[in-house]
Amino acid sequence: MPFVPPEIRLAGIAPEMALVVSAFVVLIAGTFARSRVNRVYLPALATIGFGASIYFAVSVWGENELQLSDMIALDGFATFCKISLAVFGLLTVWLGSDYLTRDGIEEPEFYGLVLLAVAGMMLMASAADLIVIFLALETFSIALYVLVGYRRRSIEGQESAMKYFLLGAFSSSFFLLGIALAYGAVGSTNLYGNSENPGLAQFLSESASEATGVLVLATGFLVVGLGFKIAAVPFHMWTPDAYQGAPSPITGFMAAGSKLAGFAALLRLFDASLFALRWEWRPLLIGIAVATMIAGSVLAVVQEDIKRMLAYSSIAHAGFVLTGVIATNDRGISGSLFYLATYGIAVLGGFAVVSILGGKDEHRVRLVDYKGAFYEHPALAGALTLFLLSLAGVPVTSGFVGKLVVFGAAIEAGYSWVVVIGMLTSAIAAFFYLRVLVVMYMQEPDESRPPIPVGRAASTVVALTAVATIILGLFWSPLIGAAEDATFFFVGG
Amino acid sequence: MKAFDPVLAPYIVALPLIGALGLLLLGRRLRAVAGLVASATVGVGFVLGVIVLVQMLGVTEKGGHGREAVVRVWEWISAGSFSVNVDLLVDPLSMVMVLVVTGVGTLIHVYSIGYMHDDPRYSRFFGYMNLFVASMLLLVLADNLLLLYVGWEGVGLCSYLLIGFWFERRAAAGAAKKAFIVNRVGDFSFLIGIFVLSVTVSSLTVSSINEAAGGMTAGIATTAALLLFGGATGKSAQIPLYVWLPDAMEGPTPVSALIHAATMVTAGVYMVARFSPVFEASGGLALGVVAWIGALTALWAALMAAAEYDIKRVLAYSTISQLGYMFLALGVRAYSIAIFHLVTHAFFKALMFLGAGSIMHSLDGEVDMRNMSGLRKVMPITAFTFMTGWLAISGIIPFSGFFSKDAILASAWHQGRYALWAIGAGTALLTAFYMSRLYFRIFEGDLKVPEGVHVHESPPSMVGALIPLGVLSVVGGVINLPGLLTLDHFLEPVVGESEVPSGFTPWILGAIALLAGIAGIAFARTLYLLPGGATRRAALCERFKTPVDAARNKFWVDEIYGRGIVLPGKAFASFCANVIDARLVDGAVNGGGRVVAGAGWLFRRAQSGYVRSYALTFLFGVVVIFSLLVFRVAL
Amino acid sequence: MTLGAYLPILFLVILSTAFAVLSIVAASKLSPRNWTAAKRTAYESGIVPEHDIERERFPVKFYLVAMLFIIFDIETVFLYPWAVAFEDLKLFGLIEMLAFIAILLAAYVYVWRRGGLEWAE
């Protein structure tokens, strides 16, 4: 039998390839030069990589097809996620360059791993096959395990990387089990499928009630695997430790990117592929959403460490986005995308301020260290105020719009009671954001502290994210429009 | 024919806003040019306003329709069918207001360059002033109630900041607080009115509310109208909420001229005119309340003005009184006449405030009219311009005030509201009297100034602003002289025509109004100018001791409010604070907080830090999901 | 939907659990136990251990080199089937393999430049 080579079109994964190539270039180039030179041109190389990636992603906007043996979905949804992820990566790299210089831990691996992690996350958004999802999941997870433990001199860093790694492996095993069960039920790992090749969606549309039991179980395990990545309760336990131990730029990157990637796969898997099975998985996700919102908000109240507080806040936000997922309508999908994009920007900005104010080796990340921060660093404290208000969902910031759209979608779908819980927990959440503000504005610093150097790239990141947060709170229509277009192009959605 | 498309309108608001942001943020660095920048933003806004007006006049459709346009600045909230956008409504009514605000505003800004020159917070002052102009323009141009409310609160905030601009002075800080709190009472009513309208009409735009007004039941229309009017009584200082305005004179004089005479206080008048269909729909009751409150306020404030010695306070009471006239006009359905009086009043009252400022400037801040006289000889320009203001407000032909005031009285007569007409005519006499008293005491007679004061005419930037306003006070009446371009005709598409009597009656009514003015002036002349006036004054005061004392004590209204409202209010507040808030609310909140925090601590114990316990929780979750799914599928 | 669909899974679960439990129980119960000193030492291909490895610490480098070895070993594993099927795969196979090798080469250069292959500090 002659071998017929598969059709290979790379448009769908061109953004990922651009990142992988630049990751290699960065890693190898980084070994040839001294760290003082690397300091300048490695971020520049990474920036070029992200730029190329964004270019490739934008150039296929409007395409809508499956490529590479139907394993890669090239659609607006993926493109929206990829552009957001590339922006997150870019901000992380810039922030990181100042951070690494300050703490004296510049090494090319940082940039290489961020590039690879973003590539993996992007693949999550494009994946139209459970195996590809797993591949992508592992790609960015392994990169993140290393990045979390990047501060090798810090005990917390090592500990958190270890915890993250162990639990991540644990969750991956469940995800694999889910894939195996799905394959057992359907005979394929493809998310869509057509009349010749079976797939999850095709299977459900053809044989509605036969053998779906196994598929439902598979669904449960897939939820576990992805729930770990988006930090949903009860798979959230790693989050505070990992967020605390990781370098702040990476923490922001995880909160923004990891969450977006996890939700991208979750949205494609559940709202498109397993849409016909929604009556089975929706109660499950509702339960998780409610538990996540409550636990995240309540636990954040008692935190004394700003990074842990933001970690619990990110858990709560996962719950808020889940309300958009369970809506299973177009507004829910586009709302979730918008939410994740704006949340990512705000949380990256927040961690940018935290990483700057933390000082060398991040010694000042407790809440008491923020006493009177406004009087020492008015601009940074002002920006942090903006980010926290956005996370709290106060009007005129992007966070308010995000909550408006996902809650609106859930109400449209008839889940008002979930939205009520969401609003109540938002009110609880507002409390701990305000607590930071009170500390910053109304309390005097305990002792006079040496001034903190503020890098140019890091302050650029803060400024950009702050401006984006306020602009997206006022002129949100373009981004919402883009998210809606992205949903329109959603293969099978 | 090209449709009317005022693309320049957003810039009219944006310019002073940018100016305000720049001045407030960059502050001291801009000190040298702060006044110029602030004046320029408002001045350019005025020019843009004129351009838009010319565009508008170019639209010559029958009946003046087609002269309105909605400019969308941006989409703000859009949730399903409910949407709130930043839309500017450009129509004859809003353009009249825009031109008054920017025109008078420019002159007052220029005046302030000289007046505030030595103030340490010079650029902040102009920042606030620009912010005020921007808010006021937003208020008059807003196409929906939410945006209007933003402007409404914005001008209130600026008023608060500017009354208390010299917050080192206890009185200024107190006056600012008083203005803020009294206004809050009105704003509360206004806000409820907005809610009532939005629930009834399920839209917040001006046009949809006014269109829907015809279909409202009289009850709802009356409720909404009275609630809106409640807001107007606060902002426009009418009975019973006028008490803040005299105290507001603690602010710098240009502020009094711009905010507390020419523009902000007229916001209530504008708002009632804007929503005149709602008032019409109430079937007479709401309009009757408006007319009577207006007439009584006019009289009441005029009485107090006649007994006051503080120049600025006289002017403040006079402002309240004139605002009363405007509401009287609104109440007799003469909406365009009310706006007409608003415009002429803006001219002559701003003029007189600036004149008072000029006097204070040269007399080291002296405001007691008993300590000065004969200033005409040393401050000729101030005196002369002040005189035009005095004659205008007294209703002497051909000064601007005569036309507008006469039109109001004629409208009241025409509507058969003879009692209102009588009050108005009586107040006109009183007005002429107290304004003449003010003018005679300050400017006529022998020169007398406080000890050690070097009297001089004010700097060019100050008198430079007085002259145009003086000219406008004289000729301002032409905008409503019968002819093609009357204000009445211009505003007709928005607020309808104001009915005035025809035939012989208007001449007689005009003559009576003029006579009332002349009589008032003549009476003041015998008491203050002619020899022996002092003895006649003393005799008169002796004879009418009780009413004069009452007026001098402002009818004890502040005291009555103090005893009747503020004290019980304070008692209630402390009850709320100590009992309800501390015990009940705080208890509930703290209790709730404690529950949350307690739950947090409880959950936190699960977060032990051991990977094995994390994995256990994880596994627990898996088991729960697994069992749930199995049972769900099985059942 | 009935529980019937779950029967295969149930069997699988029972079977796998039973197998694991039985294996452990059987091994611990059935195996004879007579420890000698030689049996207690680690098995190192018959060579007598020089140190007490239970307490000895290995250099981390050891694991690193071992991992690198495995990675490049896989390259070889991949090359064998490719070489066998090369006739059928033709140009496509060649390009694919070149891409694969290029990626590994990049990793190799990186490891080499970073000193991953040097044992001494």
Tell me the strand order in the biggest sheet of chain A. 1-2
Structural class of chain B comes to mainly alpha
Main sheet: strand order of chain B: 1-2
Total individual domains of chain A: 1
Unreliable segments of 5+ consecutive residues of chain B: none
| Number of helical stretches of at least 4 residues of chain A | 19
Order of helices and strands of chain B: HHEEHHHHHHHHHHHHHHHHHHHHHHH
Topology:
The complex is a heterotrimer of chains A (493), B (635) and C (121).
Chain A: H1 14-32, H2 35-59, E1 65-67, E2 72-74, H3 76-103, H4 108-126, H5 130-148, H6 155-186, H7 200-206, H8 212-229, H9 238-245, H10 248-273, H11 278-301, H12 306-327, H13 330-357, H14 373-376, H15 378-392, H16 398-412, H17 416-442, H18 456-474, H19 477-488
Helix pairs in contact in A: 1-2, 1-4, 2-3, 2-4, 3-4, 3-10, 3-13, 3-18, 3-19, 4-5, 4-10, 5-6, 5-10, 6-8, 6-9, 8-10, 8-11, 9-10, 9-12, 10-12, 10-13, 11-12, 11-17, 12-13, 12-16, 12-17, 13-15, 13-16, 13-18, 13-19, 15-17, 15-18, 16-17, 16-18
Chain B: H1 9-26, H2 34-58, E1 69-79, E2 82-90, H3 92-115, H4 122-141, H5 145-163, H6 170-201, H7 206-213, H8 218-235, H9 244-247, H10 253-262, H11 267-274, H12 276-281, H13 285-306, H14 311-331, H15 335-362, H16 380-394, H17 400-414, H18 418-443, H19 460-475, H20 487-495, H21 505-528, H22 533-543, H23 545-552, H24 557-606, H25 611-634
Antiparallel strand pairs in B: 1-2
Chain C: H1 7-30, H2 37-40, H3 60-84, H4 86-113
Helix pairs in contact in C: 3-4
Task: Give me a quick take on this structure.
The complex is a heterotrimer of chains A (493), B (635) and C (121). With 493 residues, chain A is mostly helical.
Please tell me about this protein's structure:
- The complex is a heterotrimer of chains A (493), B (635) and C (121).
- Chain A is mostly helical and 493 residues long.
- Chain A has one domain (11-488).
- Chain A has helices spanning 14-32, 35-59, 76-103, 108-126, 130-148, 155-186, 200-206, 212-229, 238-245, 248-273, 278-301, 306-327, 330-357, 373-376, 378-392, 398-412, 416-442, 456-474, 477-488; strands at 65-67, 72-74.
- Chain A has a two-stranded antiparallel sheet with strand order 1-2.
- In chain A, a hairpin with a 4-residue loop joins strand 1 (65-67) and strand 2.
- The radius of gyration of chain A is 21 Å and the shape is globular.
- The two termini of chain A are 38 Å apart.
- Chain B has a two-stranded antiparallel ribbon.
- In chain B, helix 15 crosses helix 20.
- The radius of gyration of chain B is 28 Å and the shape is globular.
- Chain B starts with 8 loop residues before the first helix and ends with a helix.
- The model of chain B has no long low-confidence stretch (mean pLDDT 83).
- Chain C has 121 residues and is mainly α.
- Chain C has a domain at 57-121: NADH:ubiquinone/plastoquinone oxidoreductase, chain 3 (Methane Monooxygenase Hydroxylase, Chain G, domain 1, Up-down Bundle), CATH 1.20.58.1610.
- Helices cover 67% and strands 0% of the residues of chain C.
- Chain C contains 4 helices and no strands.
- Chain C has helices at residues 7-30, 37-40, 60-84, 86-113.
- The longest helix of chain C is centred in the C-terminal third of the chain and has 28 residues, at 86-113.
- Chains A and B meet through helix 6, helix 8, helix 9 and helix 11 of A and strand 1, helix 24 and helix 25 of B.
